[in-house]
Amino acid sequence: MSNARVLTGPEVAKHNSRDDCWIIVHGKAYDVTDFLPEHPGGQAIILKYAGKDATVAYEPIHPPDAITTNLPPSKHLGPVDASTVAKVVQEVTEEQKRLEKYRAAKPSIDTVISLHDFETVARLVIPEKAWAYYSSASDDEITIRENRMAYQRVWFRPRILRDVSTVDWSTTILGQKSTLPVYISATALGKLGHPDGELCLTRAAANTGVIQMVATLASCSFDEIVDAAKPGQPLFLQLYVNRDREITRKYVQHAEKRGVKGLFITVDAPQLGRREKDMRMKQVGDEGVAEVQRGQKVKKDEGVARAISSFIDPSLSWKDIPWFKSITKMPIILKGIGTAEDAILAYEAGVQGIVLSNHGGRQLDTARSGLEVLVEVTAALRARGYLPNPNFEIYVDGGVRRASDVLKALALGAKAVGVGRPFLYAFCAYGQEGVEKAIQIFRDEFEMNMRLLGARSIDEIVPEMVDASALTSHSVLTPPDNLFHSTYQPLIGAKFNESKL
Amino acid sequence: MSNARVLTGPEVAKHNSRDDCWIIVHGKAYDVTDFLPEHPGGQAIILKYAGKDATVAYEPIHPPDAITTNLPPSKHLGPVDASTVAKVVQEVTEEQKRLEKYRAAKPSIDTVISLHDFETVARLVIPEKAWAYYSSASDDEITIRENRMAYQRVWFRPRILRDVSTVDWSTTILGQKSTLPVYISATALGKLGHPDGELCLTRAAANTGVIQMVATLASCSFDEIVDAAKPGQPLFLQLYVNRDREITRKYVQHAEKRGVKGLFITVDAPQLGRREKDMRMKQVGDEGVAEVQRGQKVKKDEGVARAISSFIDPSLSWKDIPWFKSITKMPIILKGIGTAEDAILAYEAGVQGIVLSNHGGRQLDTARSGLEVLVEVTAALRARGYLPNPNFEIYVDGGVRRASDVLKALALGAKAVGVGRPFLYAFCAYGQEGVEKAIQIFRDEFEMNMRLLGARSIDEIVPEMVDASALTSHSVLTPPDNLFHSTYQPLIGAKFNESKL
Amino acid sequence: MSNARVLTGPEVAKHNSRDDCWIIVHGKAYDVTDFLPEHPGGQAIILKYAGKDATVAYEPIHPPDAITTNLPPSKHLGPVDASTVAKVVQEVTEEQKRLEKYRAAKPSIDTVISLHDFETVARLVIPEKAWAYYSSASDDEITIRENRMAYQRVWFRPRILRDVSTVDWSTTILGQKSTLPVYISATALGKLGHPDGELCLTRAAANTGVIQMVATLASCSFDEIVDAAKPGQPLFLQLYVNRDREITRKYVQHAEKRGVKGLFITVDAPQLGRREKDMRMKQVGDEGVAEVQRGQKVKKDEGVARAISSFIDPSLSWKDIPWFKSITKMPIILKGIGTAEDAILAYEAGVQGIVLSNHGGRQLDTARSGLEVLVEVTAALRARGYLPNPNFEIYVDGGVRRASDVLKALALGAKAVGVGRPFLYAFCAYGQEGVEKAIQIFRDEFEMNMRLLGARSIDEIVPEMVDASALTSHSVLTPPDNLFHSTYQPLIGAKFNESKL
Amino acid sequence: MSNARVLTGPEVAKHNSRDDCWIIVHGKAYDVTDFLPEHPGGQAIILKYAGKDATVAYEPIHPPDAITTNLPPSKHLGPVDASTVAKVVQEVTEEQKRLEKYRAAKPSIDTVISLHDFETVARLVIPEKAWAYYSSASDDEITIRENRMAYQRVWFRPRILRDVSTVDWSTTILGQKSTLPVYISATALGKLGHPDGELCLTRAAANTGVIQMVATLASCSFDEIVDAAKPGQPLFLQLYVNRDREITRKYVQHAEKRGVKGLFITVDAPQLGRREKDMRMKQVGDEGVAEVQRGQKVKKDEGVARAISSFIDPSLSWKDIPWFKSITKMPIILKGIGTAEDAILAYEAGVQGIVLSNHGGRQLDTARSGLEVLVEVTAALRARGYLPNPNFEIYVDGGVRRASDVLKALALGAKAVGVGRPFLYAFCAYGQEGVEKAIQIFRDEFEMNMRLLGARSIDEIVPEMVDASALTSHSVLTPPDNLFHSTYQPLIGAKFNESKL
């Protein structure tokens, strides 16, 4: 709403109740009275700023255009004279004090030597709420850990005495050049952990020749991210399909227009999982954090994940695939396949690829790992003569922490591997530089491990280089005989003379 | 004994010795001299109240009619003038003080997000004796834990891109409608953990459309429970068969008359197991708690479980099945089958169903889990052409904590799943409301997991949705090389600068 | 040496050097100068008593006749006038003080409810040296624990609805009646843990109808033990074969004359194992404890086990079996068989039985458990038509702690099971009464478990009652990814309000 | 450079900057200005001694001739008058103080009873940097631990009643007599842990009849080691192949001339692995330690391992084997084979043997253990008729801690077993005496275990003596259900009366 008159702080301050609620964001006033019940983060957090400048709370967790997109123009009240607005003094919480201390004591990025280190650091320098949202997975969090364990069940069969003076781990993904057989997988709400959010990924990807998959639920807007990319820098788009297909159509076509090279449709999330760490965190605070996504309304209040997911359409089905093909020329990839049966259906539906994924363990708990499914899928597709096919690529994600993990997936038939949380934790800990360091670690590890494996290029990574015979085994221990174990006294080694120590 | 004269406190107080022992319960006096050696809880606890009002000790652990049922009418001495009875002052024990503190600090029910939470809470807000009785299992408690572990050996194979806008997890059990494919399995002595005892279950079941199986050893009387049910609310009955079959006949026929819809005869408990936690607990206190059941005498004194079980007939055999069929028209289900052989015998004996169960791990330790037996049983019954059969249902119980567990059992051939302890712990922690919350959690989890699994109704849950290949494996670790492990120094991640923390 | 003159303390006291060393034991003097280097427990402990009364040190660890048997008559110096002998004041060590305290705080025997409890108690009420000798096993102590773990890999398949009003677990072993399918296996040096030593076993066996196998290395002499037995009480004898076969011949024939019913020749101990706990214990003290066995000389000084074993003949071989058959009519059993190959050789050598045993894990570490070997052995003997044979019995020992373990071994083909350490710990903790309590626990468990298994007598325990499919599996974990596990944050349950606790 | 004039301390002291840097080592001055950037240990440590006597820092980690070999003669400035040189006072660091304390409290070597003990001791008495270099392995250190775990998956099948009066565990390796079926495998940089470095091994090998494999990266020079050997004492040589083949040719031919009996070419290290413990250690100190090897230049600075490895030629391939055969008559063995495919290629290339090895877990992480590979290799070679062949020997290394481990490898087809770290730790802890004690422990264990196994000589160790059925299994646990495990309360044993303790 174009309002010629500039408002003043005192004027806005009068509208400070549930029934009449204005707030100021980025120097403009908005009437959010009607929006209150629809706010994904709950009313409480807005009401805290009723009649006041809410920018400080709004900023870190919303794309700049979220409020203008979600409020009808009639609620845009126009600019406020900054000199008349009382400065909002945010109290410094105990958590913020703790975070400041840890940020000051943060290990130098030079001492980071593995992807695990980013997680170690991130956990202590980001808000608990962010950590809960990022690290959580569904139910008992068995699948998220199984994703990692699966890689431990595959062993290398290294070849020796090959001239490995030079090794090359670059590849193509959907025809796009990539300096690594790894892409940055979509993760949501990056600003919870770093003020630059997903832009850290975009900029690091530009500098390193790696491809980023942009998330529907990114806390930076799609255009911000594309704008931050270098000319010609390939990007993929992860898509949650909206109940309102028109919103989805516009979103997809806008992405294509802006040059996105692949559309990854998430198919394993008709509803977002129950993530108990996230749910518990919601309980301890008094406010909700959330992302207002693409104009739809959300009602639930059960942790960040569920707050932001109500727009996702649970009716999405195979019948929708032709429609997607009709609205875009981008390659279509189905993200979240978990069985050979669905891989076959996907192939027959004419898409360009699949991601064997369980959504980082955040959806159906005790679903199998992508790596385990990979063996089943490649066998089934080969049995039908569908593979090899240069126009159909298989990706895997979940649990990757080492270049050696990637090499195992490649040996078993993956074209590339998606890595999500480690890059997220990298920028939470060290911003863009962290992501670049993560990619450098991958490079060092690829050089090392390809040499030691005897593979000079991605083509030379063959199934015989791994022993995956244990991959499909699922060991669960028989409960122990505690009485026996508590009476057994373990052996100990030679003893130093304690009186001299 | 109808005694016109009203007794006075001082009169009763004279009978305060082992050889002449009267007590007052609910305002009436009883001569329990002859009953002393038969009291399942031991003589000591009664003698403590010899000549006094024992109501405060009697109340929490006996059905109201226990004393009148167990004592011959000649020992009923009639009403006592309340104004003449010295008030019994119960000393407040250390345990009671501790419980009060924990009850005050109890987590809000709103923060309960999984069935596990009820157990976490219950353990700290109920008497140790109750916890020992409820949580204990036989010998080394391997089977009780294996029951849970078995579910961890089954993995999902989720299907995607099915329209899961609406999902429905209601079903029928023995022809009765149930809003969940779960029934409340029988557990004993509920009043140990909550003053309302099993009525919490009955009332919650009424409100949620779930079926309760009433326990023979409930601390509320059968009729109290039935009276608490809503009109038309289906109930099942769990039966321990008495050495005196006449008692059993009356009990069963009374149940049928009162509308019970299924008779679950326990066949895995010719003698109740040695439950060491329970036995140890008995040792630390000076008093026994017990339930006087259906008029039989008990002699042993080895924990609650064995105290209350002496009436159970160890001679019960297949020969008795025709007799049961002759005394009731209720469907008969054998509860406690553990092999394919016995499942076949049960089918051929013409019963309407079986529960694959090891009694929550409370009977034969290192017996296999019901879930594992399910695979063996369905294969054997199918091999003989006995399945599918709409008039023969298979249930499983033990170890269920998640809707996902239930879905696994259903995929493997179960019609429904019995859940005992979790509902028990739910009412110990929060009464009827706890049970309703537990059922709400099941609902939330069913909605989520059925969507993620791609099953819109119970019918769509098929064997292909699970990978149960590891179910029959039993891993026990080779004892570790402690000297090696004690010299190995694990890797650690990047270090924060400790001087700044 | 018959010496008419009675010696005096001062006379003996003059002989107090390494070159001239007399000691007094049980009121008589001995010249041990020449014996010093041969003492299995080392010279130091004797020299501590040179010229003094050594009875207090001698008593607890030697049979009364050890000194007279081991010293030539010419070194027997005859009686000493007690009134002239200075009383040896034993200093009270820190360990003795600790033991006194623990003995005073010992749990009442009424609170012992499983065999494990005896071990829990014994460990704290016997000298460290005794605990080290008893509890130790060879090398990394993997086999001793594997013995127990093997039972955890066998699961029950219980049968229901059999009339189990009465169950009977009595049997015969080598034709001798036994109230349990369990015999007391030989363990050495009982006096280290209890002043009555192995007599506790003999007396308890008499009272309970159980058969004791007497150990060659018992700290009570063979005759003491036989004298303590009731008339007709069956005993077996465990035999270490001496390098001097004449000693062995006399020993065996003496045993037969005294009524022993079975000769168990140990065949898995040509040399006693390296038991590191025992070796380390030797290092910390300044004195050796040992048993002087049957007149042979020992030289080594590496823990109790090796000190006492040098007389054992490593040349013992299959060629010796006919000789044993020629010197005795007792049934001959080979104790320590570990493969099907040797079981076949034993059968063909015409012995009456075999014990599948690894010597309680004290000999070859990473040898398999007797239970695992049982499956291999029964299959091989059956394949050759050697089984069933009423004149050839198979026993198993090692790792048994429950009646349920015994039932598993019986189901897999054992005639009876040997139990050693648990009975040893029982008398260390509670003397004869402890052993009787242990047997009572077995009885209670047999009653319970046979009922729950649906077996009314030993004959009804059949292979189909167990699932032993995992018995031969040996799981060792892949080393964990510590960095991953250290960054994973486990789920926690609902939280109590800590400010109220 | 032959310089007639003797320099003085003050003269040298003037050259104390980065642009003009002289140091004194062993009484002679050197101009290291140009060498500074090439120093594997970094410039910092040299600059600390610019213009000063650096002997104290140089001595412990370089062979005496390292400086003369690496600097061109023109930089050799000649002798310095010792009386004019200021004595360098090394500050005593906190670590040195700690080490002194631990060295004083070191357990007596008499109390060492297993190879594990050396590691327990070494870890606390050597500098952290040494421990990090020695103990580290690549990436997640899974393979280093798996090497040990593999032995735990093989079980013995011992034979009884064989006359084992005498047992003999001597053998030949490449035709050389060895008193053990074990050789001392090459480990680098021994002086980091002990001032005598690898000479401890050489001297102990001489005294015990064991064969040492000399490491290319030994901190004692090759000639020092050979000079320390007894006449006729067999030595093997481990070879890293240099990018400059001429250096390698000279080195090999010099070794042959000095009597080396076997050339073990390392084929699994085209680049040395990323060893994170070692890398992290580099970060905490301010100085690098390193070995200047054979005249090549190194540039990297990522832990000791990578600093010293840049000379290794990653182009080494099968095509080089004929050249090696052309330059030496020594038997050639390829060290680091990890698959049957490469074992076949090696055999066909005409070498005399292979070492199945993963370089002690220091190269490709999650490569399989040598023991596991052994089964695959012997099967493949036998299938092609290549085995048995007296001129082709197979060795295994990695994870051996017990004679029983060696016996398992021999039973599965190895001719001998290489043991590296345990001997290294032995001399770190106790010098030459430690190595001799380690060999004595092996002897004791071989005697014991061969007797118990029923094998009188190496020939009698046959495949049937082991059950290796679990060797190729790789168990990784399904992530645990933490909520369940945290609510389960383990059984406990009988309780002592705590008020009396």
TrEMBL record, chains A, B, C, D:
SUPFAM superfamilies, sorted: Cytochrome b5-like heme/steroid binding domain (SSF55856), FMN-linked oxidoreductases (SSF51395)
Descriptive protein name: L-lactate dehydrogenase (cytochrome)
Transmembrane in keyword set: no
One Gene Ontology CC term in the entry: mitochondrial intermembrane space
Family per similarity comment: In the C-terminal section; belongs to the FMN-dependent alpha-hydroxy acid dehydrogenase family.
Location(s), subcellular: Mitochondrion intermembrane space
Signal sequence, start to end: none
Domain FMN hydroxy acid dehydrogenase: 107-471
Cofactor(s) in the UniProt record: heme b; FMN
Taxonomic lineage from the root: Eukaryota, Fungi, Dikarya, Basidiomycota, Agaricomycotina
Entry's Gene Ontology molecular function annotations: heme binding; L-lactate dehydrogenase (cytochrome) activity; metal ion binding
Keywords: Flavoprotein, FMN, Heme, Iron, Metal-binding, Mitochondrion, Oxidoreductase
One Pfam family from the record: FMN_dh
Domain (Cytochrome b5 heme-binding) ranges: 4-81
Assembly: Homotetramer.
EC number: 1.1.2.3
Main location class: mitochondrion
Catalytic activity: (S)-lactate + 2 Fe(III)-[cytochrome c] = 2 Fe(II)-[cytochrome c] + pyruvate + 2 H(+)
